[in-house]
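Example 3.2
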Amino acid sequence: MTRKWIWLIAILCLIVYLLFWHMQVHPFNFSDFFEAIGFISALFTVLLLAFVLSLLVSLVPYRNLSFGAKLLRALPLSLILVCLIFGLSFFLRGPLFEQVKTASDDDCKKVKTGLFKLNNSWISRTDSTQTETDIVTNETVVFRTTWINACEYRLSNEETTYEVKIIEVDQQGYTCFVQHEGKTYRNVKVLFRKE
């Protein structure tokens, strides 16, 4: 395979990785300065790691080639390797809880209080408390609700704490990411409760 094809594959891998990263973490909205900075920092991180890996590989003696020649050979291969590793790791773990984009503030206000259903539990939420009642066993758990912003809140009691991010609100209820004891539960659907 010629060097031109290897460079083409490396650039394609980089583009696919960056598009995949951006679609998973944020919708396309480069008008937001901080989202554009996040995208640029992801690009810079991948390029920097590929360059450092290429430098290390270029230090190894190979066919009496000069350092520059080895660097030019190693760079596209390092770029492909870094993109594959980052892409695979991101695909396997999904977006981090901190990276998840929330719904609009107006949508989140619709579900700040009310009656909801989650799996086999009825949920009743006010501004400061959330009560969950198991439909089968009739056991009740009460949480203190602390709103971090319009779309993020913390549920806590003496035993445990949950961090919740509302990512979408529709006519049926809302979808959220929940973080509990180091684990992230993605796309949890909470339905409006019909009386």
